[in-house]
């Protein structure tokens, strides 16, 4: 095995801390972890999410959902019913975050 | 086993999301994950941390270290040398965060 130079280790190390910061930014804020958890619990429509999170405004919820979609953590399916229905679901990446969020919750109590 | 009512589940669920947000707040910001990682890599003095993170000001590093100490993620040991020396180290709780940070870095790349 070639000896990994300390520079290479350093680069890998810095690269991972940038990824950590980018990941934290993706889920930062009061609502995003909560929205992901609610969608995973099948509260997967705007109205259901509003009910589950009485403190959030329509505007804030709409913005968070758009950002979560842009970051590929959530997908939106438009159901051609009357009135039209929009169902949200977690992507694979969104679902993969849940155990990390659970680990953070448990870590908080240490 | 007594049937866990949906209210109890809901309370446990909301309790864990508050803990997630509290945990995220503790480590949010551009520098805290990086400082914890550097201290874990034995860059455990102010001067060493400054060298390792050229972009951070003295003031910002001092503030972050104080907050990390207040949140019990880092401890400070004053070594009676001349000049006096201050060594930082991760608490058990600080060290327990590192695998979660690593998981977040890997999750980011999914």
TrEMBL record, chains A, B:
InterPro entries: HTH_HxlR, WH-like_DNA-bd_sf, WH_DNA-bd_sf. One of its GO terms (molecular function) is DNA binding. Keywords: DNA-binding, Transcription, Transcription regulation. This is Helix-turn-helix transcriptional regulator.
